[in-house]
Amino acid sequence: MGAGAEGGQPVKISGDLSNRLVHRWRSEEDAIMVGTNTARMDNPRLNTRLWPGKNPTRIVFDNRLVLDKNLHVFDGSQPTIVYYQTNDKLPDERPNVIYSITNSLIHTLQDLHERKIQSVLVEGGATLLQSFLEAGLWDEIRVFRSRMMLGKGRFAGAIKAPGVQGRLVSREMVGEDELTIYKP
Ligand SMILES: NC(=O)c1ccc[n+]([C@@H]2O[C@H](COP(=O)([O-])OP(=O)(O)OC[C@H]3O[C@@H](n4cnc5c(N)ncnc54)[C@H](OP(=O)(O)O)[C@@H]3O)[C@@H](O)[C@H]2O)c1
Fold first, then answer.
1. Which residue, judged by its Cα, is nearest atom 41 of ligand 1?
2. What are 65-73's contacts with CB under 8 Å, separation 24+?
3. pLDDT tens digit sequence for 22-41
4. Model-level pTM greater than 0.85?
């Protein structure tokens, strides 16, 4: 929905209809996951405020326990699981936030399974998405393409989206954005 521009400021790329659809998708899955940089740079709330429905459990990677506790993901407003990898620090106790140590993506997914989380919407960023793609751990890829150009000019520092693999199963316009869906 957003992307890092030069200077690290988030830029709104997709349109209002796409944003509402993403909030609907959030309401349909057990959990929503973001990488450390996305949690820090975009400060997302990861809730369903643009669609009526339940809020998903939030999942955030904070491997070295460095994320600022004032970020929305730590506000306790909905169940949140933070995965970390360091033995050098102990995680803080925070209401509605569970800390769980992990050593790999597969271990993380096994842990989620044991916590009865059966579906995860991985919202980004590119590094986290790439790790799922490389491990072949995905059921569906949904890509929004906007007309907005980020790669050149004003937003030359934008982060490149991961390369999409898989079989194209649908293509449609959502407002001004193109939505394509791929299956393995
Ligand atoms: N266009 C969009 O829809 C969209 C969506 C979301 C984000 N974004 C943009 O993407 C940018 C951030 O992307 P990014 O690629 O720099 O960072 P990111 O994927 O948000 O976070 C990367 C960090 O998360 C941790 N991580 C990633 N995959 C992991 C895995 N499999 N297991 C454990 N830890 C993992 C690592 O932290 P450590 O290095 O600490 O180990 C890694 O360096 C932001 O600018 C944001 O605005 C765009």
1. 63
2. 65/89, 65/91, 66/36, 67/36, 67/39, 67/40, 68/40, 69/94, 71/39, 71/40, 71/43, 72/43, 72/44, 72/45, 72/46, 73/34, 73/39, 73/44, 73/45, 73/46
3. 999 999 999 999 999 999 99
4. yes
Ligand 1 centre to CA of 20 (Å) is 22
CATH of the domain at 90: 3.40.430.10
Centroid of ligand 1 to alpha carbon of 132 (angstroms):
12
Q: Which residue has the tokens 């994320």?
A: 67
Domain of residue 26 covers 6-136
Task: Give, using CA atoms, the residue closest to atom 48 of ligand 1.
Answer: 3
Distance 158 CA to ligand 1 centre (A): 13
